Amino acid sequence: MNRIKQYAATILLMITALTAEAQIGQHRNDLSIGVNGGYMLSNIGFTPKVNQKMLGGITGGVSFRYVCEKYFSTICSVQAEVNYAQTGWKEDILNLNDEPVINPQTGMAEEYSRTISYIQIPVFAHLAWGREKQGFQFFFQAGPQFGIYLSDDVKANFDLATPNVDDRSNKNIAQETMPIENKFDYGIAAGLGMEYSHRKAGHFQIEGRYYYGLGNIYGDSKKDYFGKSNHGNIVVKLTYLIDLTH
């Protein structure tokens, strides 16, 4: 709970700073809309630990931006998205020698992954420096992100009812068959990027972003198996925006 309060206080301070700047800076009233798409690498922060690799997935949707102020050299905006996203985890199933566990029935290395699909809604305080109308600018953005569960898909090349646990160095397998319990996700996202603006063609952004989930996909009470099971995402994204008002 203290961690959530700290993140909430940070976002509140950012929004307050934007509001303060809006009172003394150069007013703007620029509204843009567009599309975005990208690739994300995901895992789940399990406690107790589950050995993992990063799971690849796609993300994409619509973007909105409202530029409200320019304060000295800082262009202040609010940017939001509504995205479809594929997150989840992929297990790294190893034996005591840190080698892949071989399934005795198939002779293949055992593999397990679960892709979880969400509607994700990030809302960012967006701060940029550089050319406002024509040229390049650098930006930083951060804010809360909310996720609504849609579905999940399990891929495994072994029988989940009879896993080869004896050969594994990590014996935690409960997550492989447990259904997703919490269908609402929330956390903090932040990114750095570059934008190229053209008076007629619009705005082109490229960004690297990280999302840290504050919620868990499984129950986290003392009676539950996992004390923590939160999302972690690394995202590379392209965004195109056109001005509606300027």
Rg of Cα set: 21 Å
Helix content: under 10%
Structural class: mainly beta
Q: How many angstroms does the end-to-end distance come to?
A: 42 Å
With strands numbered from the N-terminus, the spatial order across the biggest sheet is 1-3-4-5-6-7-8-9
Give a short account of the largest sheet: 8 strands, antiparallel, barrel
The H/E string reads HEEEEEEEEE
Could you please describe the fold and organization of this structure?
With 246 residues, this protein is mainly beta. The chain has one domain: Porin. The chain is built from 1 helix and 9 strands; from the N terminus they run αβββββββββ. Strands 1-3-4-5-6-7-8-9 form an 8-stranded antiparallel barrel. A hairpin with a 4-residue loop joins strand 5 (112-130) and strand 6. The protein is elongated.
Write the layout of secondary structure elements.
Elements: H1 2-24, E1 26-47, E2 52-53, E3 55-71, E4 74-91, E5 112-130, E6 135-156, E7 184-198, E8 202-213, E9 228-245
Antiparallel strand pairs: 1-3, 1-9, 2-4, 3-4, 4-5, 5-6, 6-7, 7-8, 8-9
Q: Can you summarize this structure?
A:
This protein is mainly β. The protein has one helix spanning 2-24, and strands at residues 26-47, 52-53, 55-71, 74-91, 112-130, 135-156, 184-198, 202-213, 228-245. An eight-stranded antiparallel β-barrel has the order 1-3-4-5-6-7-8-9.
For the structure shown, list the relevant keywords:
single chain; 246 residues; mainly beta; Porin; eight-stranded antiparallel beta barrel; 1 helix; 9 strands
